[in-house]
Inverse folding.
């Protein structure tokens, strides 16, 4: 039987802890990965159509899905319908999931206080700021740790879990989109690998917690 902590499989917790320790004690991994996309002068993928599509698509998608859910809820509330099963509990689930992990923890707590310099800002890649490992509070006045775009992209998992039909397919789509956004940010010099990996785990863990608490039926597995 798969042991869980706060409804989250122990495997996910262990992977998060292990990956975090690896990035702290072997920070050169971040430099090595970013160096794969550095040509000695800059990050060529930065500013390309590929990078910009994934950079600028995250916020509109989150707004569109959130606004759509809210409008359906209002329609159901006033018409006494049950379109797509969007009720007050669903709205609360989305508010908590989107607001806590990508909103409060990543963008307000981590990015505003850790001050980690982005790859393109560090001396290793042509900048003037010092590199600092993940999870180590810095004084470089940067916003690299952790990735807001990756967190936003992976938060679409919250919407995918609400779907009853072809749920596995839509979960896969959400995760693939998150990976592509993460790749775009890392390859463009906007984030280190540890930034996007941390955002992935934070969003996934809190999404599972709130889904299990508010939405999961007794005979349903996530």
């Amino acid at each position: 039987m798969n042991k869980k902590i706060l409804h989250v499989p122990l495997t996910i917790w262990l992977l998060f802890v292990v990956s975090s320790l690896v990035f702290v004690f072997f920070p050169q991994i971040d430099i090595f990965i970013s160096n794969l996309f550095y040509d000695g002068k800059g990050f060529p993928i930065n500013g390309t159509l590929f990078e910009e599509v994934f950079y600028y698509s995250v916020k509109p998608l989150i707004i569109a899905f959130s606004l759509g859910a809210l409008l359906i809820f209002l329609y159901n509330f006033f018409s006494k319908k049950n379109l797509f099963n969007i009720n007050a509990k669903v709205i609360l689930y989305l508010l908590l999931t989107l607001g806590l992990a990508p909103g409060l923890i990543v963008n307000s707590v981590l990015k505003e206080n850790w001050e980690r310099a982005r790859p393109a800002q560090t001396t290793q890649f042509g900048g003037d700021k010092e590199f600092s490992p993940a999870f180590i509070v810095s004084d470089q006045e940067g916003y690299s740790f952790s990735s807001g775009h990756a967190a936003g992209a992976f938060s679409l998992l919250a919407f995918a879990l609400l779907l009853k039909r072809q749920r596995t397919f839509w979960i896969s789509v959400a995760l693939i989109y998150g990976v592509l956004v993460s790749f775009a940010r890392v390859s463009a010099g906007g984030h280190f690998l540890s930034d996007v990996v941390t955002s992935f785990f934070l969003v996934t863990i809190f999404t599972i917690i709130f889904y299990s608490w508010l939405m999961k039926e007794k005979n349903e597995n996530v």
